[in-house]
Amino acid sequence: MARYAERAENLARILDVNETFARDVQGANDWLPILKLHRDEEAFFERYKEATSENVVRFYIIDAENPNSIIYSVRAARENARSIRHLISLETWAQLNVSYNLVASLTARNLHLSELSRLCGRIKEGVQLHSGIVTGTLYRDQVWSFYRLGVFTELADQITRLVDIKYHALLPAWQDVGSPVDIAQWNALLRSVSAYHGYRRVFPARMTPTTVAGFILLSPRFPRSLTHCVSNIEATLDELLTNEDLRDISFPRDSLETLKELTSRSPERVVTAGLHEYLDEAQVALLDFGSQVAATFFYAD
Amino acid sequence: MTDRSKGLFANYDREEFFCEMFGGSAHPASHTDSIRDRMRTMKVPTLQRRAQSCDRELYNLGITFTVYSDRDAIDRVLPFDVIPRVLSRDDWSHIERGCVQRVAALNRFLHDIYHDQHILNDGTVPAELVVRNANFRPEMKGLDLPHGTYVSICGIDLVRDGQGAFRVLEDNARTPSGVSYVVENRHLMMRSFPDLTGNVGLRQVSNYGMHLQAALAEIAPASAADPKVVLMSPGVFNSAYFEHVFLAREMGVPLVEGRDLVVEDDRVFMKTTGGLRPVDVIYRRVDDAFLDPEQFNPKSMLGVRGLFRAYRAGRVSLANAVGTGVADDKAVYAYMPRIVRYYLDEEPILQNVDTHLCREPEGLAYTLAHLDELVVKPVGESGGYGIVVGPKATRAELEECRARVEQDPANYISQPVIDLSVCPTLIDGSIEPRHVDLRPYIVTGKESWVLPGGLTRVALRKGSLVVNSSQGGGTKDTWVLE
Fold this sequence. Notes:
The structure holds two protein chains of two kinds.
Chain A: H1 2-22, H2 32-37, H3 41-47, H4 53-61, H5 70-83, H6 90-104, H7 113-137, H8 142-170, H9 180-192, H10 196-202, H11 209-218, H12 226-241, H13 254-263, H14 267-273, H15 275-297
Chain B: H1 33-40, H2 44-60, E1 64-68, E2 73-77, E3 80-87, H3 89-113, H4 118-121, H5 127-131, E4 153-160, E5 166-172, H6 179-192, H7 194-197, H8 208-218, E6 229-232, H9 241-251, E7 255-256, E8 261-264, E9 267-272, E10 275-278, E11 281-284, H10 288-291, H11 307-312, E12 317-319, H12 330-333, H13 336-344, E13 351-352, E14 356-357, H14 361-369, E15 374-378, E16 388-389, H15 395-407, E17 412-416, E18 422-427, E19 430-439, E20 441-444, E21 448-450, E22 455-459, E23 473-480
C-alpha cells in the first residue's frame, strides 16, 4: 500500500515538473526522458505513435494497462489496502476510496495541459493526505513499522532511478555547465522532488552536477534522499526487532550494511567512481533488502 | 384525497398489507407514534438529499460487496432505505424468546444426529432425510463439542403475515451473513438522522463484536486458558469480504486466510511475523467443503491441511461446527416444530410457514394441484435462486416448474404465498409500501444472546416478495424500542 501510494505521488511530481519544464523548450522530445526513466519506451510505442505531451500524459495518468501509471498505482494501493483493511483505520480506507474515484473518473478531456499542473497537484495532495492519515491514525505496532519500511524503501528506489536517468540524459550538456538549458534541467530535477528550496539554502550560489546529485542522494536533511531513507529504514528495523514478539527472529543485515556504506560516501567520490554503478549497487541492495524482509517476516520463498 | 395531518406519509397507502409503521386494521401500531410524529414534518426532498449522502458515505467507507470482473474490482453498495423498520418491545421479546428456543433445538438436534440418532431411530424425522443429505458430515459422528454448541452464529429469517404474526421462513445455521449491515446501518442513521434517532430509546447494536468474541471464547477447547480467536476468510475475492474485515475489527481478532494457518501435531497455528502462534477458536467464513483439503475437497486452496484432524482431536474449535448445514436444509425445516417439541418439550414460540414436502406423496400431489397458488423452492439453494412464486409466474414458468418438481420431487418444498408485511420506503421521490423480512442474529457460546433488531431486507421492486440482495433487495435500519 505504502509503496504504490508513493509511486503515484512520484509520477504526479514528475509529470507536473516536466509539463512546466516543457513549456520553456518546445518540441515533443521533452517527454521522452519520462519514458526513459521508467524504461517504458517499448511499451509506450507499441500503442502510441508519438511521444506527444497528450499521449505521454495519458499513458502515465489514465492508462490502466500501464503498470507505471497513476491509475494503476492508486488502484494497486487500494487493493493492497483492501487486503489489510482490518489493520488500517477507517479513515485511511475511506480516503483511499475517494482518491481512487478521483483518478478513476478522469478521461482524456481532463488531461489538458492547462489543467495538468492542478490535476497533478490534487493527486499529489491525495497521497500526502493518505500518509498524513496513516501517520495520525495507524496503531503503533508492527504494522506501523512495516508501513514505514515500505515507504522508505520505495522512496529510496525512486530517488536512485530518477537521478540515474536524469544524470544520463544530462551528460552531454556537461561541457557547457551553467548554460541556460543545463540550469533549467537541474532546476526541474530539484523541483520535481521538492528539493529546490533546500538545495538553495545549502548552495545559494552554485549548481553543478556533483552538488545537485550529491544533495538529492546524500543530504541527511532532505527527506527523500537515499541517506535519509536508509537511516530511517535502519531505525525502523531496529525498533521493530526490539519487539518482544520477534525475539526469535534473526534478520540478515548485509544489504542494509551495503546501503549504509553507500550513503557514507562523499558526493565527489560517488561521481568520480561512476554514478551509474553506484546507483546500480544501491538498487540491488534495496531489492535484496525487500526480499529479506519478505522472507524473514512474511514466509515468502 | 390526501390527509395533510399525515405530512410526509400523506400519500402513503399500505394497501391490504400489514404495515410495520402503521400496523394492520386489527393492530394499530401505537409504538411508532413518536417516530411518525417526527417524520411527519420532514419533506421528501430532505429525505432524498440525506439518502443520497448516505449512499455516498456507504461507498466511501467501503461498506460494499465486491463484484470482480476480468479487469476490475467493482464495489457495489447494498441499497439502503432511510426509513427505519421499528419493532415494539413486546414483539421483540416474543421474537427473542422464539429465536433462543429455536437455536437450542437446532443444537440439540445436531448433537443427536451426530451421536445416538434417537430422533431418526424413532422415526420422528425420516432418517434418509438427514443421513443422505449432502450437508450431513458422517466425519462428525461421536465428536463432543464444548457446551454442545454446533451453531454459534445463527440467522433466522422471519416474515410477518397479513395478521402481523411472525413466522420462520428459514434457518441459516451455516454462515449467515449480513450482520455488518445491521451495525453500519445504525451508525449511518445516527449520523444522518440525529433528529430522528435521538431520545427515542433504541436498543443498541454496536456491541455485537464483544458478544461474538465472548461467545467464541466460551466454545474454546477446555485446555485453552486464554483462548485465541481468529476469523478465517476465503480472502479479498469473496463478496462478503467487507463483513469479514468488519467482524475481525469489531472483535479485535486477527483476520486470516487458510494460507496463514498451519497444523502441527493436531494443533493449529497462525503464521505471524514473530513465528507460529497457537489458535484455539476459528470463526470460519469458509464452507465445510473447503476447510481442509485432506478431509474434504482435495482441490481446496482456501483451507488448511490437517485442520479437521485437529478439530476431531478437540484441539481447536470451529464456529460454526462442521456439518450444521443439514439443519438449515429446507426439508428438515418442515420438521422444526416437531424437533422443538421433541428435545425441549415445549410448544414452538415462533411458527413455521406451512410447508408441503414434495418428497411425501400428499405433499407432492397438493403442490402440483395448487402450483399457481404456492411458492415452490428447491431445498438445496440459497440466495433466492430457483424460487417460483405461483401467482406471479407465467404459464410457461409454471409448466417448467412442474416438470422439474415431477422429475426430482425430493428436491422441492412448497409453501403458501405469505403476504409479507410492508414498510414505507422512499422510491423515486415518493413514499411507497415495500415488502420486508427480518433476520435476527443469535450468538451462542454457553448460552444464547440475540442482537436486538437484526437485518431488515426490503424488496425494492414494486410488488416483489423476494428480498435477497442478488434479486434487487436493499436494507433498512431495524429499531427495537426500549
